[in-house]
Amino acid sequence: HEGDRLQWTPLRLVHAEESLEISGGIAGEQLQDIRVLASQIDLSIVQRLMAFPDPMRGRATLQVLLSGTLSAPLLHVDLNLQPEGRQNLPFQGVQTSLAYAEQLLQGQVRIQQADRDVLAVDLRFPVNMALTAIPTDQRLVEGPIALDVHLRQPDLGAFARWYQRLPQLTGTIQGTIGVHGTAAELNLKTDLELQKLGVRGTAEQVE
Fold first, then answer.
1. Are the C-beta atoms of residues 123 and 105 closer than 8 Å to each other?
2. Which of 22, 35, 45, 207 has its CA 20 to 30 Å from the CA of residue 168?
3. 19 forms bridges with which residues in the sheet?
4. What element of type H or E holds 161?
5. CA–CA distance, 130 with 196 (Å, rounded to integer)
6. How far apart are CA 199 and CA 205, in angstroms?
């Protein structure tokens, strides 16, 4: 630390297969390529943090890049979850990415089952994510908001079997859910096809 300058000497922590690397710095208003890379993180940590009932075996990788300035930051985040072996998880893999620039946050989530994408979520949200003290009500920026969810026949029963607090649904859903508009007026549009949808112990099939 020197005056208004904060610099991280590249830091690397290693434990077995897990590693954490941090580098970059801050000089006045400038964010100097702050990087965080967490590799091969044991998924059992996620299980404990989220209080999920069953152990989770697998690895997670997180990459964060922060640059720009405090008032106009540029952010990119990638998170990948990759389970290992045969276990009672409702997904085969999860990929998440977030990007922020010029007062626009964009995000994607992809979930796989049986070697294919079964859930895709895409987000566009205008927001001021400046790393400065501005009132919360000033962080919302005027502009189009879009949230699109694509359902490609996920096995709903897999989620219910894994986490008992979820609705005990069976069957699957094909279609899309979209939320578009502005903060002042949002519109919801759905186009869904229920396929052998039911509620275990209540309704074997919902038409």
1. yes
2. 45
3. 14, 39
4. helix 156-162
5. 47
6. 7
E strand segments, the chain: 5-15, 18-27, 30-42, 58-69, 73-83, 93-101, 104-113, 116-126, 145-152, 169-181, 186-199, 203-206
* pTM score of the predicted model: 0.85
Contact of 193 with 176, CB cutoff 8 Å: no
> Per mean pLDDT, which of 85-89, 90-94, 176-180 is the most reliable?
176-180
Phi, psi torsion values for 119, nearest 5 degrees: -145, 125
Inter-residue contact 183 to 143 (CB < 8 Å): no
From 190, 122, 112, select the one nearest 153 (Cα to Cα).
112
First and final C-alpha spacing in the chain? 64
**Tokens in use for 14?**
């290693």
Count the alpha carbons within 13 Å of 47 in the hemisphere toward its beta carbon: 16
Name the region of 153 (left: φ>0; alpha: ψ -120 to 50; beta: rest).
left
Pairwise pLDDT comparison (40 vs 90), residue with the higher score: 40
d(CA 169, CA 200): 6
Residues 6+ apart with CB under 8 A from 151: 118, 119, 173, 174, 175, 176, 177, 192
